[in-house]
């Protein structure tokens, strides 16, 4: 499990039985893994939003579209047209003259 998720899951499994009535250990693990996944998606969304906003390309429609992405792949698909291209050594040399 990832950082932050395991401690909460372990606490609920040990001490929070009254809070987690009807939820077994496997379901708690699944919930903890999903929480980590959602947090990672949220962090990636923030990084992509900052990148697109820095380019001056972030519109309300694009922001909403990225917020509605349910997976990292869907988020990457929406980001692809705005992703900065890698510059090769030859391109850098041509720019310098």
UniProtKB/TrEMBL annotation:
Gene3D superfamilies the record matches: RuvA domain 2-like (1.10.10.650)
Superkingdom of origin organism: Bacteria
Protein name stated in the entry: Uncharacterized protein
């Amino acid at each position: 499990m990832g950082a932050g998720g395991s401690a909460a899951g372990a606490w609920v499994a040990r001490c929070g039985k009254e809070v987690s009535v009807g939820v077994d250990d496997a379901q708690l693990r699944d919930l903890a893994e999903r929480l980590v996944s959602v947090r990672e998606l949220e962090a990636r969304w923030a990084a992509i939003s900052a990148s697109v906003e820095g380019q001056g390309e972030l519109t309300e429609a694009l922001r909403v579209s990225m917020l509605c992405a349910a997976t990292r792949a869907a988020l990457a698909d929406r980001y692809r047209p705005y992703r900065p291209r890698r510059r090769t050594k030859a391109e850098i040399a041509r720019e310098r003259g």
